[in-house]
Design a protein that fits this description.
By secondary structure, this protein is mostly beta strands. The protein has a single domain (about 25-160), classed as Roll (Pnp Oxidase, Chain A). The protein is built from three helices and twelve strands; from the N terminus they run H-E-E-E-E-E-H-E-H-E-E-E-E-E-E. Strands 3-2-6-9-10-5-4 form a seven-stranded antiparallel beta sheet. Strands 1-11-12 form a three-stranded antiparallel beta sheet, with no helix packed on it. A two-stranded antiparallel sheet has the order 7-8. The radius of gyration is 17 Å and the shape is globular.
Length: about 170
């Protein structure tokens, strides 16, 4: 890991940092938008989190090296698909290079003109509220304009493995 001018180098390397972050279980989403050339873009993100209830804001981040960064920056809005426990294969598909990630994926278009993927446990459509460059990523803050939910367990990612949400027994 590099340090910025005037800052000491971290006392850990990138692998150690990644392993520590892997201990934090996260939900899994697929963020989608329509690019200016009318094709759909989408990727698996576990960087998703809520920011504010009033106004309703969420955030996620995307690598500055991502081939779809310009499309997400240019799109007026996007959809966040919160994956169900049955959608681990979909999470893998959208996290790897694929000729057409949407081929054969059942979806409908939302108000944001972005794919809302069938079978998810929630869908949030957003318009841009703010974008911030932060290190090697861009942080997108979205104002939620529509929200839907279904029922069932969500997909989680923890220590490099997919799992599911399940309540602990009460003591």
């Amino acid at each position: 890991m590099s340090s910025h001018a005037g800052e000491p180098a971290p006392a850990f390397d990138e692998r150690q940092f990644r392993e520590a972050l892997a201990q934090f279980a996260t939900g899994v989403t697929v963020v989608c938008a329509r690019a200016p050339d009318r094709r759909y873009v989408g990727f698996t993100a576990n960087s998703f989190t809520s920011v504010s209830l009033d106004p309703p804001l969420v955030l996620w981040s995307l690598s500055r090296r991502s081939a779809s960064l310009a499309a997400f920056e240019a799109a007026p809005g996007y959809a966040i698909n919160v994956l169900s426990a049955r959608q681990a294969d979909l999470a893998r598909r959208f996290s790897r290079p694929h000729a057409d990630r949407f081929a054969g994926v059942a979806h409908r278009l939302g108000r944001s003109d972005a794919p809302l993927i069938d079978g998810c446990v929630a869908w949030l459509e957003c318009r841009h509220h703010a974008l911030h460059r932060a290190g090697d990523h861009v942080v997108f803050v979205g104002r939620v304009v529509t929200v839907e939910r279904s029922h069932g367990p969500g997909l989680v990612f923890h220590h490099h493995h997919f799992g599911t949400t399940a309540p602990l027994p009460e003591t």
